[in-house]
TrEMBL record:
3-hydroxyacyl-CoA dehydrogenase C-terminal domain location: 190-261
Main location: cytoplasm
UniProt-recorded name of the protein: L-carnitine dehydrogenase
Native organism: Streptomyces kunmingensis
Transferase as UniProt keyword: no
UniProt keywords, alphabetically: Cytoplasm, NAD, Oxidoreductase
Annotated compartments: Cytoplasm
Length: 320
């Protein structure tokens, strides 16, 4: 089998058809791929097709690729049939390490040589999952966010025995398939976004447990506060704008000492010169030539758009 470039892929296999796997199926169908799917549950096909049907109106609103059709889905009776002609494989089994190891080894044995196999794991490093595969070099993590047909982010990273070419190929494929991709330089348990989510989640649980805030208070503190800004430019550039014209450097000079204040149960790292410089220079890179004034205007437009779209601007939301 001659391996295609990411742009040439036409057939994708999705193994595991629950909420995440089914979301992947819906996404790939909407992008115009032929999709084969397999899941061991006896009622998997009926549930999968209901999920795809439920997602299709949103996908239609987002814009379907030429040739996109729910009729291009084939649910197979075996894993081997699902991947027999696959040009890319997305595994989305439950988060059980032994199960992941066994399934990835089976996929490696059944999938045509060289075809990249990606796992939707939400936390396991690929190094821990690829231990029993005969060819671990093609196994990568392709971590999506729920629902995969709607949330664009995918975090891609290989394990110790993954070839760099497989990581690069997977990252490019996801981009071609309409995803926003972060290719990680190294493995970190939980990856990037889940670690940030988990930090917020744990602090929220502490606050509820200690009677410091209600669930409603916690959710409103994000949806009516920083969540609006994060939807536009994330926490780092958001904090850079808190420094005014001095940017992140001024923000760190002014607020850096508060890292030692008891604002969270997490222990803050030492704000030494190396970390200081890394954060400041990182914000310069992320700004990509935009001035503070331009970033402020971009943020303000974005927050207004989010408020308008969610009906919180004092008027009606835009027609959908």
């Amino acid at each position: 089998m001659t391996l295609p470039t990411p742009e040439e892929v036409r057939r994708v296999a999705c193994v595991g058809a629950g909420v995440i796997g089914g979301g992947w199926v819906a996404h790939f169908l909407a992008r115009g791929y032929d999709v084969t799917a397999w899941d061991p549950a006896p009622d998997a096909e009926a549930k999968l097709r209901r999920l795809v049907d439920a997602a299709w109106p949103a996908l239609t609103q987002l814009g379907l690729a030429e040739g996109a059709s729910r009729d291009r889905l084939t649910v197979t009776p075996t894993l081997e049939l699902a991947v027999a002609e696959a040009q890319f494989v997305q595994e989305s089994a439950p988060e059980k390490l032994d199960l992941k190891r066994d399934l990835l080894a089976r996929l490696d044995a059944a999938t045509p040589a060289g075809v990249v196999i990606a796992s939707s794991t939400s936390g396991y490093p690929m190094t821990d999952m690829q231990t029993t595969a005969a060819d671990p070099s093609r196994l990568v993590v392709g971590h999506p966010f729920n629902p995969p047909y709607l949330i664009p982010l995918v975090e891609v990273v290989g394990g110790e025995h993954t070839e760099e070419a497989a990581v690069s190929w997977a990252s490019r494929f996801y981009e071609v398939a309409g995803k926003s991709v972060i290719t990680m330089d190294r493995e970190v348990p939980g990856f990037i976004a889940n670690r940030l989510q988990e930090a917020l989640w744990r602090e929220a649980l502490h606050m509820v447990a200690n009677g410091e805030a209600t669930v409603r208070d916690i959710d409103a503190s994000i949806t009516e506060g920083p969540g609006l800004r994060w939807a536009v430019m994330g926490p780092m550039l958001t904090f850079a704008l808190a420094g005014g014209e001095g940017g992140m450097a001024h923000m760190l000079d002014h607020f850096g000492p508060s890292l030692k204040a008891p604002w969270t149960r997490l222990e803050a790292p030492e704000l030494d010169r190396e970390l200081y410089d890394a954060v400041v220079s990182g914000c310069d890179v992320a700004a990509d030539g935009r001035t503070i004034a331009e970033l402020v205007a971009e943020r303000d437009r974005g927050v207004i758009d989010v408020l308008r779209a969610t009906g919180r601007l004092g008027g009606k939301a835009e027609p959908r």
